[in-house]
Each structure stands twice: as C-alpha cells, then as structure tokens.
Write the structure tokens for this entry.
Amino acid sequence: MLSSQQNIISRVAAWLGGDKPVWLATILKTWGSSPRPVGSMLACTLDGELVGSISGGCVEEDFLEQLQNGSLKAQYDVEGKPFRIVYGVSAEEQARLKLPCGGQLHVLLEYLDANRGNREVFSRLAADLDAHQKVGRVVDLQSGEVSARPGSDGVALRMDEKRMAHNLSPMYRLLLLGAGDVARYVAEMALALEYDVTLCDPRPRYLDNWHVEGVETTSRLPDDVVREKFSNSYSGIIALAHDPRVDDMALMEALKTNAFYVGAMGSDRTSAARRERLPELGLSEEEISRLHAPIGFRIHSKTPAEIAISIMAEVTAVRHSPKSASRADG
C-alpha cells in the first residue's frame, strides 16, 4: 500500500519508464472551500490513464476533456513551458464544475516528455520515497526542467517567478503493540488514513487469530522492531497490549527515537504506574514526557471501535501539529 503522493510519483516514474509522456497537475493555491490541499497532484497519460486527484472529480472531468480535445496541448505549445490554470474564477464556472461556493483552484500543469532526464528524476523521487526519505522536486518555470533535491521544511509547496519547490513526504508508519480488538479497529482506521501499519505481539499464539488485510504482523521483540523500522519522524508507536512485558519493551526504545507519536493505552492509574516504571528502564524525565497516556482524546469511549476513534483522532492531531512538523524537519 502506498500513500497518495507516493502512488502518484511511482506511477509517473513507471509511465515515463515505459516511454509514455505525462501531464502532471499540482495545486498551487486555493481560495474558499477546496476539497484538496495545496500540493495535491493528478497525473495523466495522453491516452487517459489517470492517478491522483485535485478536486472531488469535477475538475478531473474538465481536465480529461481538455486532454481529449487537444486544448491542453495547444496551451503548452503556445507557452512552451509549465503554465497555470485557474478554476472557479466566475460563478458560471463554479456552477459548471460544481466547485464549492466561492472556491478557486490555481493549478500548475507540466508536460513531462519521456526523456532520459525526466525518467531519472522521477525514478529517484520514487526510490527515495520507497526508502522512507524526505525528498522534493523543483520545477524551473521557464524551461520546464524538473530536478530532485533533499526534502526541506514542512511547507508543502513554495513558488516564486522562477521555480516551484514541492516537498514530498514518505508514507507514515504505525507500529501497534498487542493483538486485540482495539488494535484491529485502530489498524483498519489507520489503513484508511494511508498509514503503513505493522502489528507486533511476541506472546505465543496471540497472532494466531488476528488478521487485518494489508497489515504486516510480527512476533519479534518489540524493541528490535522499533529500532529497525520505527525510529524516524514519520513513525508512530501505539502500545495496546495491556501487558508491561510487551508495551514497556517497545516504549523504552520508542521514547528515545524521533517518532512523531508514542502512546500507551490504559487508565489514569495504569498510566501513572507506567511512568513510575519507565525510569527503571533508563528513560529520562524529558523522554517520558513525550508519552501520550492515557491514550486518545476523551470522548467517553466505551467500545473497542470508539476507543480506536479517540486514538486515531489524537494521532492525527499530533501529526499535524507544528511541533510534529518541526520534528519531521530535523
């Protein structure tokens, strides 16, 4: 499973590698209501293969119509470089495209020929994202030349008169500890939110009857799993086992990492007892202060599904917080 950005970049790399030119659309600005954020992309081959989205479907239909009637290519032939299209300028166009009231989209369109340079750039972008590394693409707005560079700050896109710099993020990962009902619902919600999900439980037979399609499972020691795969700022660790032998083993490693989120399920009393144990595992007060426990937002949740909602709401809030963004930059 790939995130939206990773999927689009991988598909573009594959199309270019197969000698198929590609149109790539990127949202530059939005005003009013917009179904997709700045930096969202849509890619399309000349024969209509499409991946990604820049609206709820209305702009995509208009894009495909312009592709088929040749008007996209005509605009490119006139400019000879990437060009901007603004959707939703007039009330009539908003109604025709069914854009939300007052909404506007400023979109950069690039025509990517299947030449050696473009193939190499998009192959590198795809490889870096697969390797869980931050990466960015830079578009020269005069020549249309695309280059790759290491990813920078948390701003999705920067643009001036000469170039567009677009930061691309690797897919976020979540490690769940403990094969139980809450973990099952958390895993399903996390998959829907485009996380790469792994469930770890080293206890004998606990994994025998636990399965969620698309989730990797492992019975290895949790601290080893954290150390090897979940130590960077695109990783989150959620302890759900209710067993110190499993949860604490993961937490003693996770709280020393740059993970954007570390949380543990339990009552106020259980969480207080855990905080008293953690210094014995060599953790400092500063490291322990990063722990979210009790886990999740207080929504008076009772059932496993409700608990999972509260957990993923908190994970989402932490992921999008300025503090988490600065951690991802570091």
Observations:
- Residues 173-329 form a domain with the Rossmann fold fold (CATH 3.40.50.720).
- The longest strand covers residues 22-31.
- The chain has a mean pLDDT of 87.
- The two ends are 26 Å apart (CA to CA).
